[in-house]
Design brief:
Blueprint (H helix, E strand, L loop, with lengths): L15 H17 L14 E6 L5 H12 L3 E6 L11 H10 L4 E6 L4 H8 L3 E7 L5 H15 L6 E5 L6 H12 L3 E5 L15 E3 L2 H5 L4 E4 L15 H8 L3 H4 L7 E3 L12 H4 L6 H26 L1
Parallel strand pairs: 1-2, 1-3, 3-4, 5-6, 5-8, 6-7, 8-9
The structure holds phosphoric acid mono(formamide)ester.
Length: about 300
């Protein structure tokens, strides 16, 4: 199958076959990351710009590492010290980056739809590195890649996503991606953190974590995004940990080999116990490592779309 999309904006807009192509491409790039010289010339001569309007550790660094492993030049723009502070609009910033001859723009923004707006306004490739509460497609792709690596398949798996569903772009992208590949997704949170319409996306919805975890093959644990809303939008932390926290005690009652995932950053003792985050069921740091291969695949494929057009 040939990749034809100029941009990666969300898993909602990809077919099952396109998601599978990204995962297969990531598999071959993962092999590259195990070589002594972890570099291929696939994007030599191309320039990747990382434009992040929100803080990031994992996503920004792994896009940079991914681009460098593909031999691209990489520019990181720190929005705090850019002309955004002087009032430059998102589209003007994007058009100037394009005028500076960038080939791929990786953007994270607090507003849902910001990468789509840039993609419509620019000829260069745009990759969504997380927009508001909308989507974080490369995070879901690396979550799915890690699950497939651990369990050998996605079809038929039972995956629970627990935590701050209301504010989570990771959750939305995971629901789209996992459902398209045939997994059964259940989202779990106290009622105040379950947004309207989430059930219509294809996930089962429950407020009972122990019930949700009963037959689960994997649990993806989300942090409270306190920065996104009024304090009254969140449950009390100790109460939340008692009722929803992923603890050793809770895991004793579920499948022994359940996979524990977390997109990070972790709030230890709020949504997950330290002993679980660092324990044998946890694949949290493997997710981070897999982010490199997955982002290499995404950068490689969107760049190919331009070449196909000529
Ligand atoms: N998972 C994730 O998006 O982490 P960062 O915010 O550190 O990029």
């Amino acid at each position: 199958m040939l990749w034809t999309k100029k941009d990666l904006l969300g898993l909602e807009y990809l077919s099952k076959e396109e998601i599978e192509l990204i995962l297969e491409t990531a598999e071959s790039f993962k092999e590259v990351t195990t070589r002594e010289i972890k570099k291929v010339p696939a994007l030599r001569g191309k320039t990747v710009v990382n434009l992040f309007y929100e803080p990031s550790t994992r996503t920004r660094v792994s896009f940079e590492v991914a681009a460098k492993r593909l031999s691209a030049d990489v520019i990181n723009i720190a929005v705090e010290t850019s002309s955004v502070r002087k009032g430059e609009t998102l589209i003007d910033t994007g058009k100037n980056i394009q005028a500076l001859k960038a080939d791929i723009l990786v953007v994270r923004h607090n507003c849902s739809g910001a990468p789509a707006l840039l993609a419509r306004s620019l000829a260069i490739n745009v990759v969504n590195a997380g927009d508001g509460w909308h989507e974080h497609p490369t995070q879901a792709l690396l979550d799915i890649f890690t699950l497939k690596e651990k369990l050998g398949r996605i079809e038929g798996l039972r995956v629970v996503i627990v935590g701050d569903i209301a504010h989570s772009r990771v959750c939305r992208s995971n629901i789209w991606g996992l459902s398209k590949l045939g997994a059964k997704v259940t989202v779990c949170a106290p009622e105040m953190l379950i947004p309207p319409g989430i059930g219509e996306m294809g996930a089962a919805v429950t407020c009972d974590i122990d019930e949700a975890l009963k037959d689960a093959d994997a649990v993806n644990v989300l942090r409270m995004q306190f920065e996104r809303d009024e304090p009254t939008a969140f449950p009390e932390q100790l109460e939340y940990f008692k009722n929803y926290g992923i603890t050793e005690e809770r895991l004793k009652r579920v499948k022994r080999n359940i996979i524990v995932m977390h997109p990070g950053p972790i709030n230890r003792g709020v949504e997950i116990a330290s002993v679980v985050a660092d324990g044998q069921n946890s694949v949290i740091l493997e997710q981070v490592t897999n982010g490199i291969a997955v982002r290499m695949a995404v950068l490689f494929l969107v760049a190919q779309a331009n070449e196909a057009k000529g």
